[in-house]
From TrEMBL:
The name this protein goes by in its record: Cupin
Organism: Roseovarius indicus
């Protein structure tokens, strides 16, 4: 994920030819990833129960409920800024699918 400056803290945990795994930590309400476009398909695994606010641009903002450990998948091309909509610290793990699995 390429992002403009945001206040959430990304920690890359795995980065190889097939996947990039990043923990995104939002220390306080309103912390955000910064505006970005996803260049790969990805899976997000929330590490909390609560909500994220998603700024879709053009003044459109939606609230996305999150459940601890329940993943969701999105395809490449998504553009947004992800914002902590809770009154507590929260985090999620993002797994970017960089390359398809090699043929056996």
């Amino acid at each position: 994920m390429c992002s403009e400056t945001g206040s959430a803290k990304p920690t890359v945990m795995i980065d190889n030819a097939r996947v990039r795994v990043t923990e995104w930590r939002f220390a306080k309400p309103g912390d955000n990833t910064g505006w970005h476009r996803h260049e790969y398909d990805y899976v997000v695994v929330p590490l909390f129960d609560g909500v994220l606010e998603i700024d879709l641009g053009n003044g459109e903002r939606v609230t996305a409920p999150m459940q601890n450990g329940v993943p969701y998948f999105r395809e490449l091309g998504v553009e947004h800024d992800v914002i902590n909509g809770n009154d507590f610290e929260c985090a999620f793990v993002e797994v970017e699918l960089l390359e398809p699995k090699p043929e056996a």
